[in-house]
Design a protein that fits this description.
2 copies of one chain form a homodimer. In chain A, 63% of the residues lie in helices and 7% in strands. By secondary structure, chain A is mainly alpha-helical. The longest helix of chain A has 27 residues. The interface between A and B is large, with 69 and 67 residues. Chain A binds a DNA duplex (30 and 30 nucleotides) through helix 1, helix 2 and helix 4.
Amino acid sequence: MKHAIETQKSLPDEALALGQQLCFAVYSVAHAFNRTYKPLLDRFGLTYPQYLVLLALWQSDGITVKTLGTELGLDSGTLSPLLKRLEAAGFVDRTRDKSDERQVLVSLTDKGRDLKSEAFGILMEIGKATGCSMEEAGALRDTLTALTHQLDASFAGDKSG
Amino acid sequence: MKHAIETQKSLPDEALALGQQLCFAVYSVAHAFNRTYKPLLDRFGLTYPQYLVLLALWQSDGITVKTLGTELGLDSGTLSPLLKRLEAAGFVDRTRDKSDERQVLVSLTDKGRDLKSEAFGILMEIGKATGCSMEEAGALRDTLTALTHQLDASFAGDKSG
DNA sequence: CAAAATTAACTTGTGCACAATTTAATTTTG
DNA sequence: CAAAATTAAATTGTGCACAAGTTAATTTTG
């Protein structure tokens, strides 16, 4: 009697297959990117999330942990220990904001700034590994960004409405 | 000599912006899916990776840890503790394979099998949250799956050649 | 202005994810 | 057939990711 007369419209069994799921395709490609980045970042002693933090800082140095978190979609529970490790490795400095002692300003050291020139090389390697043209990559990126916003909106919608 | 003559073409600074990166779009949508699944899975006391394991088992019950790992792209270092938790929660059983004592067979309990009927509802909720038609979702899934294979192939290619 | 509410960062605890190592079983080879 | 190589799981150690709770600074309000 288990899955019974079931779902009427009766989604076929294969609808549940891993290979059918968009979420699993996303999950898998995220891991694949991680694997691809790893050897490139290992040379600098960086993890992928640490590299994302540097990408953010190369665009706007000296921002708060909060701002960094907003850009990356991470909270301080993730960022605090990560930034400590980046500081220990000599890539960033963390200083209390004099005008608001609650905040901590994250800024690049010389070592952190210097690494930026290497990032262009990493970018090219990754671009090559994807096998995508700039246009394809850009289109896919925009599709995924839109999907992220759609999912976040649905999520927020569930809480209130 | 690596990427050598290189930056000649001189990628502009904005090429490094987070919003420009395909990898960051992937990273972000993966987290967005996680957030969307969380309230749906919390009701059953499941995490998202645990749910993926059940999806695999609903298609083919009684497989080895190794086979499960191949399907999910995970190793025993991740799966062993995860499966222990799934067993403790009563969703699966783990038994040594009599014909090859190295292997452990993972099979669904009644409780684990029963949960399958709920999965169709989760599928629908997620589908709704993505705001995609079946066709759009399928096309995006196929694009991402192809990209995963491309990245894995580049990765493997780096090690040998 | 003082009490209450809010905010930013940090801390604690749980659960992936993965590299590296260990242990035990099986297979290959000499 | 025994030694060597391989294989499957599990274990250990590091680093995210996130919920929940803490602390200290700031802002809001009565």
